[in-house]
């Protein structure tokens, strides 16, 4: 095998001869090189693969041997030969009227995510039927249990509004967004007021703890009585009152009994008939 390093001198000499021949004038060339009719011609040679279309004997066979070529899985044109499959019958789809009805729990908690069980998104006229949010002045009079219940009522309401908005977006209904947004604003205003009231009570509790730490009558250790007053208000109140003579006290009782009319007294009711607060 020829070494590439040994071929470099021969290639350099060949390039120099080509450069020298490029400067030869046309008059110095032989007349046969200037006359096209005297020039020798030869047929263009090509590879065997390009002559396949002309039935060249030495051409390479490039025919496609893939038997599944051209089949479409999307259009389901099928195969060109039978496949070996079992004789088991294919399952037939069940008609909708033969499908048994699904029994659901009417008291399931997920029903609370919807305003109505028949329609997910209620009409805008129903969304607009709401009042204003609770004010801080009104919530200050509520107990902890009332605020706790009201908070989760607001959470449930916001879940219903979010479910209806999702259904409007999915179905592209194109209405009810403004009314639902206004309803959600009032609910969020109530929740913000609840947080405000609870924050005030927390600050008040912190101030009371700091004040109790300096009060000798309050025990914050958790051992024994939490509050041991040195004197009771009832004793102080009784000591400040002046004694009333027995004659005057009896005269007051007789005067009150004389002015009281038994017919004006309300009828007594049982515990079941009494109204609940």
Automatic annotation (TrEMBL):
Biased composition (Basic and acidic residues): 58-72
InterPro entries: MRP-L47_sf (IPR038340), Ribosomal_uL29_mit (IPR010729)
Subcellular location: Mitochondrion
Keyword Ribosomal protein tagged: yes
Disordered: region residues: 49-91, 231-277
Keyword set, alphabetical order: Mitochondrion, Ribonucleoprotein, Ribosomal protein
One Gene Ontology term of the molecular function aspect: structural constituent of ribosome
GO cellular component, one term: mitochondrial large ribosomal subunit
Family per similarity comment: Belongs to the universal ribosomal protein uL29 family.
Name of the molecule in the record: Large ribosomal subunit protein uL29m
